[in-house]
Amino acid sequence: MKIINARLRGDEQLFTLQIEAGKFSRISPQEGILFSDLESYDANGNLCSVPFVEPHIHLDAALTAGEPNWNISGTLFEGIERWAERKPLLTEEDVQTRALKTIELLVANGVQFIRTHVDVTDPNLVALKALVKIREQIKDKLHLQIVAFPQEGILSYPNGKGLMEQAIKEGADVIGGIPHFEFTREYGVESMRWVIELAQKTGKLVDVHCDEIDDGAARFLEVLATAALEAGIGERVTASHTTAMHSYNNAYCSKLFRLLKMSKINFVSCPTESMHLQGRFDGYPKVRGITRVKEMREAGLNVCLAEDSIQDPWYTLGNGKLLRVLDSAIHSCHMMGYNELENGLDLITNNGARTLQIEEQYGIEIGKPANFIILEGGNDLEVIQKQGEVLLSVKEGNVLLERKPAEILTGPVFG
Ligand code: 17E
Ligand code: FE2
How far apart are CA 252 and CA 334, in angstroms? Predict the structure, then answer.
């Protein structure tokens, strides 16, 4: 396979990329524009980028919005209640059907690497078993990581610790947590120490729903980061959401950031989800309830963006388009500075890859697996401006998706 007339991130020139045996074998700058031929894919000056990474999605709950009841208040807590009504109705087939449909949406929008949280506060672990099967079924096409996510708590749910351990035995890759939802602060603290100890014992990664609440007193992030630092496993640990950080005072945040940098943990922000769920207990002015993405980037912390929900009890919209999530973060986090836009795609590509610890499979470099997408636009700024479609997605040399650019058939021409 050969790609001609492609742009690469951070470079003005046109490139030809050669792929052999599923790997990049040659990446060379062109003298000028090459004529299309039958053997080559003509990128037409568009960007050849590393694939999108979806580092935080709930595939078990996707496409269940309104079943059996709608979330009327729009709060996280009502979402958890509505989901608790849907959970007893789950079957493996139901989970598999919805998860595969959702994965198709993500793939159609350039995603090749996914981390899904799966609720394990279910004595039968129905959703977990279904997703372990899906991971196996699609493994040649897509990288899927499964987080054992204790939606109703580790210490606050009957046999919570046992279910987490069972989920690891059944094949979960990542250990989750939800300290801000545990009954007490003490349970929250204990759960974070327990999660890190389990990660040390099992060698698994960690990704905690951490401080997803507009309570400036929710400070489990410092507990998680300290435990990760002391265990020396920070790079394998992720704090998702951290929306309480929006409500922390700046003096505390300044002290906290020193620890976060030392710990080397990763961050996931879900700006569309947080803007929708957070701020619900405020009058005006209302907090946006999004973690400090701009400040994290400036401090050199690893932060990436995710969609979190696709049409579930927490969030009725969602369509697999990470460019929409990025657009939302750019607005809500004041990140429209040129310096922030020129490498803006990092937030939905490289930073997510680092969070998932998949960097050896990731990167447009000779010898690496040929995993890439072609985006409408010649650089990060143009791609973000256009909000266009993914034209091609290739995984290890195999075409996952090809799409023709949309074309206006009749319409105004003014110049
Ligand atoms: N569960 C949770 O605790 N938080 C979320 N944002 C979602 C599920 C989607
Ligand atoms: Fe989540």
Answer: 21
248 close to 217: Cβ distance less than 8 angstroms: no
* Rg over CA atoms, the chain: 21
Domain count along the chain:
2
Alpha-carbon span 231 to 202, nearest angstrom: 13
Instruction: Give ∠ CA 123-126-131 in degrees, rounded to 5.
Output: 135
How many Å lie between the centroid of ligand 1 and the Cα of residue 31?
A: 50
Question: 124 and 219 in one domain?
Answer: yes
Residue-wise pLDDT tens digits, 153-173? 999 999 999 999 999 999 999
CATH number of the domain where residue 262 is located: 3.20.20.140
Kindly report, residue by residue over 244-297, the tens digit of the pLDDT. 999 999 999 999 999 999 999 999 999 999 999 999 999 999 999 999 999 999
Please report the beta strands in 51-183, taking only residues with DSSP state E, as ranges in sequence order: 52-57, 111-119, 143-149, 174-175
Residue 407 lies in a domain: no
CB neighbour list of residue 239: distance below 8 Å, 6 or more residues apart = 208, 210, 211, 221, 224, 225, 265, 266, 267, 268
Pocket of ligand 1 (CB under 6 A): 58, 76, 151, 178, 209, 212, 273, 308-309, 314
Q: Which atom of ligand 1 lies nearest, measured to the CA of 309?
A: 9
